[in-house]
Amino acid sequence: MVAGSVTDSATLDDAIAGQDFVFAALSGDLPTYAQAIVDAMKGSGAKFKTKVY
Fold first, then answer.
1. What's the pLDDT score for residue 23?
2. CA 20, CA 23: separation in Å to the nearest integer?
3. pTM score, whole prediction
4. Residue 52's pLDDT is what?
5. What is the DSSP secondary-structure string of 1-53?
6. Residue range 1-53, pLDDT digits in tens
7. Residue 23: how many other CB atoms lie within 10 Å
8. pLDDT for residue 50
9. What pLDDT does residue 45 have?
10. Are 8 and 40 in contact (CB under 8 A)?
11. Which residues, at least 6 apart from 37, have a Cβ–Cβ distance to it below 8 Å?
């Protein structure tokens, strides 16, 4: 588990690097936060599947 701001790209990049999956529980500015996560995952070369409940 990593605590930090989803808008801090350096922290987000470090948190996602080498991970098998990413789970994010978000509230607030969802489009901005989700895009930051997707961008970081794409930058890390991670494969991803999005599921919204």
1. 82
2. 10
3. 0.73
4. 63
5. ---S-TT-HHHHHHHHTT-S-------SSHHHHHHHHHHHHHHHT--------
6. 778 888 999 988 888 888 877 888 888 999 999 899 888 888 887 766 666 66
7. 6
8. 65
9. 75
10. no
11. 6, 12, 16, 22, 24
Tokens of 30: 């969802």
C-alpha distances (whole Å) from 20 to each of 13, 29, 47, 49 are 14, 25, 9, 12
Tokens 């070369």 correspond to what residue? Answer: 45
Report the alpha-carbon distance of residue 43 to residue 48 in Å, rounded: 12
Written as one letter, the residue type at 29 is D
